[in-house]
Design goal:
The protein has 13 helices and 21 strands. The protein has 461 residues and is of the alpha/beta class. The strands form six sheets. The chain has a six-stranded parallel sheet, sandwiched between helices. It has a five-stranded mixed β-barrel with strand order 17-18-19-21-20. The protein has a three-stranded parallel sheet with strand order 9-12-13, sandwiched between helices. Helix 1 packs parallel to helix 5 and helix 8 runs parallel beside helix 9. The radius of gyration is 23 Å and the shape is globular. The structure holds S-adenosyl-L-homocysteine, iron/sulfur cluster (SF4) and FE3-S4 cluster (F3S).
Amino acid sequence: MLKNTGFDPLGYVNRVKEILPKIYGKKPLALINTYGCQQNVSDSEKIKGMLTTMGYGLTEDVEKADFVLFNTCAVRGHAEDRVFGNIGVMKQYKQKNKNMIVAVCGCMAQQQIIADKVRKSYPYVDLLFGTHVTTRLPEFIYKRLTGSGRIFEISQDSSEIVEGVPISRDGKIRGWLPIMYGCDNFCTYCIVPYVRGRERSRASEEIIKEAECLVKSGYKEIFLLGQNVNSYGKGLDEDINFSKLLRRLNAIEGDFVIRFMTSHPKDCTKELIDTVAECKKVERHLHLPFQSGSDRVLKQMNRRYDSKGYLELINYAKEKIDGVTFTSDIIVGFPGETYEDFEKTVKLVKEVEFASLFTFIYSPRNGTPAASMPDPITRKEKGVWFNELLKVQEEIGRSNNQKLVGQTFRVLCDSIESEGLLSGKTSSNIEIMFEGSDQLLGQFVDVKITQYTNSLKGEIV
Ligand code: SAH
Ligand code: SF4
Ligand code: F3S
C-alpha cells in the first residue's frame, strides 16, 4: 500500500535549528556532492532545502564545510569507484573539524554490501542512509549531534511518498519535477530497481501544484522526471496516465515549456506521441533509450520490445511530431553480445539518426541477473566497438547539424557560455550558441543558425 506522509512529523527540523548555534557558534555550512542522474540532482535539491530550513548555509568549499554529504549513484562501477576515492579524502578534513558530519546517501548507500564496506573501512563517515529515508535527514542529524553513535539506515520499505519537503533549487530557469519514483522493470543489467525500490507515482494534484508554483516563480522549463514516465499513474486511485498528466500541465497558463525523461519504449504509446504533437508547451524531443539493436540481446536484457516495434514508434513520431528529434541510451558489450549483435545496434543508430547518444560499456552490477551471465568479450574489444559506435554517431550528428544552418528557431536562453555568449535549446533539444546579454537568460528568442563547426552558432533575429 502506498502511503502519503507529511514531512518531519516529529519536529526534528526545529530541534536541529535550536542546537546548531550552540554547537557551531555560527551558521554552519553544508557541502553537497551529487553524482548520477537527475533523480539524484532533484533529491539533492530537497536535501539542500531541508538543510537550509534547519539553519545551514551552503558552500562549495570543503575547507569551510561542517556537513559534507555524498549523494551517490550505483549505475556503473566507475561511478562507485569515484565516490569511494572522494569519501577517502574526507578523513583529513574531519581531523581538522571535530564537529564535522560526513554523510553518504543515494543509490550506492542503499546496498547492504556498500553500507558494510563504509561501516568497516570508512570510520569517519558519521551517517549513511538509503534512498527511501532521505527525508528523515533532520532526524539523523539531530541524533548524531546529540551524541548518538554512527547512524546507518537503509530501510527497504519503498511504499512511502513524502510530500511537502522544502526544496532549494539549483537553477532559476529549469525546474526538476519528479512525477514518480522507483522502477519495476528489472532490466537484467540494471541496479536501479534494487536501490530505488518499487515504482510509485505522485498524486497528479501534487505535481500540478508544484508545476504551477514553478511557473509562478518564473521557471521557464519544467522537466518531469521518472525512470519510466510512460507508466506514470499505475496504482493511483485517479483516472490518469502520463498523456493525461501532460495535457493537464500543458493547460497551466504561462510562457513555459515541458520536457520529460525517461520514456521506456515498451510503454511508449501512440497516445503519448499524439499528445506531444498536440500540446504546444511540450517540447519536440523524445529520449527513448533502446539499449541494443539486437532482438536477441534485448530479450536477454528483459527490455520487452524488439527493434521492429521500436522503429515503428520512431516512424510514427517522425510522422506526427513536426521536427521531432530523438536521443537514446545504448549499452555496448552486454554479456554474450557478439559483433553481429553490435552491428545491429549500429544499423538502428543509422536508421533513426539520433540527435545524440549516451553510450555506455556494460558494467556488471552485483546482484543483477546479467552479472552472472557468461561474458567472453574482453573489455578492450568492447572499447573498440564502443569507439566505432561513437564515430558513426559523430558523422550523423555532423550531417544533422549541417542541415540546420540557415534555419530559425525559438530558443530558450538557458546559460552563459562566456562573456556576451549565450546558449539555449530549441524545442527539439538542439543547442545553439549566440551573442547576447545575460539579460536574456530565461527568455525565449528567435535565433537563426549561421554556422556549424563543432557546435551550432547563430544570431538573434
Ligand atoms: N530508466 C532509464 C535508464 C536509467 S539508467 C531507462 O530505462 O532508459 C541510465 C542508463 O544507464 C540506462 O539507460 C543504460 O543505458 C545505462 N546502464 C544501466 N545499467 C548499466 C550497466 N550495468 N552497465 C552499463 N550501462 C548501464
Ligand atoms: Fe533500469 Fe530498466 Fe528500470 Fe531503466 S527501466 S531504470 S534501465 S531497470
Ligand atoms: Fe544512478 Fe540512482 Fe540515478 S543508480 S542513475 S543515481 S537512480
